[in-house]
Design a protein that fits this description.
Layout: H1 2-31, H2 33-49, E1 67-71, H3 76-87, E2 91-96, H4 99-113, E3 118-122, H5 128-141, E4 147-150, H6 168-190, E5 194-199, H7 225-244, E6 250-255, H8 270-283, H9 287-290, H10 292-299, E7 310-311, E8 317-318, H11 327-342
Parallel strand pairs: 1-2, 1-4, 2-3, 4-5, 5-6, 6-7
Antiparallel strand pairs: 7-8
Helix pairs in contact: 3-4, 5-6, 6-7, 6-11, 7-11
């Protein structure tokens, strides 16, 4: 019996050795120089294809005498948008939630551009009270507002209901910016021509419209599904806002910045962030590259008077999903958000 058992043990041992050998052979393929070179070439080709059609450094537009607000300007795309505006001579207001990180961004932008007319104002977009206080301060301090960039957003948050009764991601990504925009509209009208740019995402194509979502009901917290829903609402309401603003010389457009290496993934699990960063190192845009399409919508001379449109990450005009172009739904969505935010 011991010989039989010994024979089986040897058999399974040899089988394991063969399996490990095969696995090592496959791993050896991935470590082969050919694999490394081909991956690098593919990454280079993809990044060349992602290059923007419009180069902000080649754009001579100056913003001297103009005032711009950029939400989420302490990091990522928002910081590079604010940096560009400051270089063009604008008075730039960084709308940030964190005072420490906002101050760091403020000092960096002032140092790099030599523009001291860059200022930090605190706002928590998930709180309608904070949004109203921020807007009240702007209306008291500023005589004009020419550019409003609604950039700040979160993704991957667990389910949480704010003190206002809203799902936190919906409050931060949509209702906060929606209320802020409406509170500043009269100032923008009196400052016209002026532009509103809402940073959305190509992920809106996977979004759904269900008005119970705003209160955290019937939501699926799987990967970026909640984020996708909020980005769809961004475009829908931007289109309706543009319709309402016709004849005022205030334009409103939405834009996809591209798949960008930013901190938007910070609320996801470690392994999701690890995979995202690994792939992103080769194939995704940097925050500076991701800021280009938004800057284009904000300053490009050829977009003067263009409103109610959606721009892709390469600065090209493109069509959002059919649901985002539903005019009747846009009216319903806009009025629903007005009712929600008017009470707070």
């Amino acid at each position: 019996m011991s010989e039989v058992r010994g024979g089986k043990a040897v058999y399974f041992f040899l089988a394991d050795v063969r399996l490990i050998s095969r696995m090592m052979a496959w791993l050896g393929f991935f470590y082969h120089p050919f694999w490394a070179v081909s991956t690098a070439l593919l990454a280079a080709v993809v990044r060349l294809q992602m290059r923007n059609r419009w180069n902000p450094q080649a754009c001579a537009v100056r913003l001297t005498g103009k005032t711009a607000i950029v939400t989420g300007a302490n990091t990522g795309i928002g910081k590079f948008i604010a940096l560009d505006f400051a270089r063009r001579g604008a008075r730039v207001i960084l709308a940030c939630r964190s005072e420490a990180r906002g101050t760091a961004a403020l000092n960096e932008i002032r140092e790099k551009t030599g523009n001291l007319d860059v200022h930090l104002r605190l706002v928590d977009l998930s709180s309608m009270g904070s949004v109203r206080a921020f807007a009240e301060g702007i209306l008291k301090e500023e005589k004009a507002l020419h550019i409003l960039i609604n950039n700040a957003a979160v993704s991957g948050l667990p389910r949480n209901i704010t003190k206002d009764g809203f799902e936190e991601s919906f409050a931060t990504n949509h209702l906060g910016p929606f209320l802020l925009t409406n509170l500043l509209l009269d100032l923008m009208k009196s400052s016209s021509p002026s532009r509103i740019v809402n940073v959305s995402s190509v992920n809106h194509k996977r979004g759904k419209v269900d008005f119970s979502h705003f209160h955290g009901e019937n939501l699926t917290y799987r990967m970026d599904q909640v984020y996708n829903n909020t980005k769809l609402h961004n475009i829908i309401c931007t289109n309706e806002l543009a319709r309402r603003l016709k004849g005022t010389d205030v334009t409103a457009n939405s834009v996809h910045p591209g798949i960008v290496m930013t901190e938007v993934m910070r609320h996801y699990s470690l392994w999701v962030r690890w995979i995202f960063n690994l792939i992103g190192f080769f194939f995704f845009k940097s925050p500076e590259e991701g800021a280009v399409s938004t800057i284009y919508c904000a300053v490009a001379e050829e977009l003067e008077g263009v409103t109610g449109k959606y721009f892709d990450s390469d600065c090209s005009l493109t069509l959002p999903t059919p649901l985002a172009r539903d005019a009747a739904l846009a009216v319903k969505d806009f009025e629903f958000c007005e009712r929600l935010t008017s009470k707070l």
